[in-house]
Amino acid sequence: MAIFVDASTRLVVQGLTGSQGRFHGFRNRDSGTRLVAGVTPGKGGMDLDGVPIFDTVSQAVEATGANTSMVLVPPAFAADGILEAADADGINLIVAITEGIPAHDEARVFNYIRQTSRTPLIGPNCPGLISPGKANVGITPHEITLPGSVGVVSRSGTLTYQAVHELTVRGIGQSTCVGIGGDPVPGTSFVDVLERLEQDPETEAIVMIGEIGGSAEEEAALFIRDHVSKPVVGYIAGVTAPPGKKMGHAGAIISGSSGTAAAKQEALRAAGVTVVDDPSGIGEAVGIAIGD
Amino acid sequence: MDLFEYQGKELLAGAGVPTPAGRVATTATEARAAAEVLGTPVVVKAQVQVGGRGKAGGIRLAASPDEAETVAAAIVGMDIKGHTVRTVWVEEASDIAAEYYVSFTLDRSAKKHLAMVSAKGGMDIEAVAADTPEAVVRMHIDPVVGLANWQASELVYRAGFDRDTARQAADVLRRLYEAFVSLDCDLVEVNPLALTGDGMILALDAKVTLDSNAFYRHPEFEAFRAAFTHDPLEEMARQRGLNFIKLDGSVGIIGNGAGLVMSTLDLVSLVGGSAANFLDVGGGAGADTINDALEVLTHDPQVASVLINIFGGITRCDLVAEGIVEALGRLEVPWPIVVRLDGTNATEGRQIIADAASDLVVPAATMRGAAEKAVELAGGR
Predict the structure, then answer these.
(1) How many domains does chain B divide into?
(2) How far is CA A43 from CA A15, A47, A48, A218, in A?
(3) ∠B369-B372-B373 over CA atoms, to 5°?
(4) Would you call B100 a catalytic residue per the annotation?
(5) Is the torsion defined by CA of A237, A241, A245, A247 positive or negative?
(6) Are residues B317 and B281 in the same domain?
(7) Which pLDDT score is estimated for B380?
């Protein structure tokens, strides 16, 4: 088992013919993911390195049985691309990697999807997700992962790689690593992922990596307190970030007195999470938690 | 991007929100001329990208052009919470009968737009909400539907606005919301929204934050930047496409990915140092980007050592290493650089660093070890 993506994943990449789409789409295929189609309006009928290209997502689904779509188109077209995938019958997971989508577009897309379908959206502005040894949908370098039983959920990309690396070098494998993204309105929240990891029989322990801004970590802490029985190791980035500055991610900003790292760490500790203050300590903390 | 009040008012006025007439001035003489044109009394208001200017003495009434000149002379150059006032906004004084508060923003938790309205405007809304929560009406708006007429109406009646002008106020709310959405704002806040003695609803202040991700559909917004006082380093970095924020410490930081860089700043602090900056080179940085990043840091006299922390995913460590070596040849690098490389092509990258055999470059095996070394080399500063 794993969550969201596994050996049954049949991937269509929206924007496969672009430079980013091509690079990451084929990297996903090289790491064992079944890449079945690409979509670029106007390029339908083309064959790209053995992968058929379609004009629309629904055509790709009808012809290839694709069930997961990865959106890798520029920000001006990404919101539309997500809506197209959400409306395509057969797509049951959308992963939006694109960074820089306007916040109002994201808010509209999030609410529209929630009202019209049950398709989960991961991202935007995220590294995607990987179930090591089964499927990789996104930009995570699969070489740093190891199949195993620790679930990872994070708002960051490279910081997730750092955490996964710490686990892998200790021989601790991962079930699924999900990057939910650094934007203010992520399609999938910490709570959504925690709920699935709690239910996933293969996952024994959870690593959660948050950062300043918003209150998603506090909401996750309440969920963990009430609904998560598996050990959780947490880390929050941005302890020294100054208020009012966007620290790279659109969502990483301390507004007034809310969204601070200290408040998030406190909330997680109160929920029984082992909070480390140095990402290098994540591997060791997980090792202790699972009795390794 | 936080706008000055006068820039925000210009946008809101364009969206049909009533605002008082006013003029921009950068000197006392210009303020006097503005007062003469507008007719007195006027209000002279400091333009800064920070709240609390009224309490700091940055908003003053002037009864005559002479007084406008005197008042402006006192305000221009004033320091408000670390922001130096370069510009004032000279505006017709209004006859205020009531002061309201209105804001539209995104509620990240509910993932919907949030309207906040109060009849107790003109003061710090966080304090009003803390002392008298019932005085602030909050309502969520579905971004797919937008602000419905009944919602605008309910907001003004529930908040207890003047009944005779309630319909007019509801219309202003709809225009403010329309501006919030169509101009891609993260925040539109009007405090106070005034009811004047002659029954007009007027936006006397405007706090507008624009979403820079949406600038591709509002290219004209880039021009607002020209009015701001830029940190020269931040401007240099922005022109090179680097995500950079100046901080107060002595360890220069370069990394890839916002989370990893934030984490690096924290780790430097944890081991007893302090970071001079946040600098994210983004995904897929090549040698040129690393060279640019190092060049920006050479212009910061506070930097005593530099820590480069890369976890390669799309970014290739060999290209990063090449960038470092090139920069050493091209730039006058005055400080040691501690380099930690992991992920894609890390072995090749470490080899390039080793082959360069520069006294200035110190390789580190782990993120924590790198932070400790960089802090030590900065002399514990």
Answers:
(1) 3
(2) 10, 9, 10, 45
(3) 85
(4) no
(5) negative
(6) yes
(7) 55
B265 vs A144, A215, A240: nearest CB: A240
Please, what's the largest Cα pairwise distance for chain A?
Answer: 56
Q: Are residues B112 and B215 in the same domain?
A: yes
Report the amino acid identity of residue B359. D
B89 vs B5: CA distance, rounded Å: 8
Per domain, the residue ranges of chain A are: 10-122, 128-289
Question: Mean pLDDT over residues B224-238, rounded?
Answer: 89
| Identity of the residue in B216, B270, B313 whose CB atom sits nearest the CB atom of A76 | B216
| Alpha-helix residue ranges (DSSP H) falling in B202-345 | 232-239, 258-270, 287-298, 317-330
**Cβ neighbour number for residue A65 with a 10 Å cutoff:** 13
Task: Tell me whether residues B259 and A209 touch, CB distance under 8 A.
Answer: yes
- Which are the catalytic amino acids of A? 249
**Catalytic residue (one of B101, B177, B322, B372):** B101
Rounded CA separation B223/B217 (Å):
14
How wide is the angle at C-alpha B3 spanned by C-alphas B1 and B5, nearest 5°?
Answer: 160
Architecture of domain A10-122: 3-Layer(aba) Sandwich (3.40)
How far is B176 from chain A, CA to nearest CA, in Å? 15
Kindly list the distances between the CA atom of residue A189 and the CA atoms of A29, A153, A182, A199, in Å, as whole numbers in the listed order.
27, 9, 11, 16
On average, the pLDDT of chain B sits at 95
- Max CA distance (Å), chain B: 80
How far is A244 from A163, CA to CA, in rounded Å?
27
Q: Name which of B180, B185, B202, B191 is nearest B17 in CA terms.
A: B202
Contact B177, B139 (CB under 8 A): no
pLDDT classification of B381: cutoffs 50, 70, 90? very low
A158/B256 Cβ within 8 A: yes
Does residue B90 contact residue B42 with C-beta atoms inside 8 Å? yes
Residues B95-134: pLDDT tens digits? 999 999 999 999 999 999 999 999 999 878 888 888 998 9
| Domain coverage including residue B128 | 1-19+95-229
In chain A, which stretches have pLDDT less than 50? none
* pLDDT, average across residues B290-303: 96
Rounded-to-integer distance, Cα B261 and Cα A162, Å: 11
Residue A122 — φ and ψ, nearest 5°?
-105, 130
Inter-chain residue contact B259 with A242, CB threshold 8 Å: no
Q: Are B377 and B345 in contact (CB under 8 A)?
A: no
Residue B230 neighbours by CB distance under 10 Å: 11
Peptide bond connecting A102 to the previous residue in cis, omega within 30 degrees of 0? no
Cβ–Cβ < 8 Å for A207, A153 = yes
What pLDDT score was predicted for residue A291?
A: 85
Name the residue of chain A whose CA is nearest to B275's CA.
A240
Q: How far apart are CA B230 and CA A2, in angstroms?
A: 48
- Cα(B285)–Cα(B46) distance, integer angstroms: 41
Q: Report d(CA B32, CA A284) in Å as an integer.
A: 67
CATH 3.40.50.261 for the A128-289 domain, yes or no: yes
Identify all chain A residues contacting B108, using CB atoms and an 8 Å cutoff. 184-185, 213-216, 251
Evaluate whether B341 touches B304 at the Cβ level (below 8 Å): no
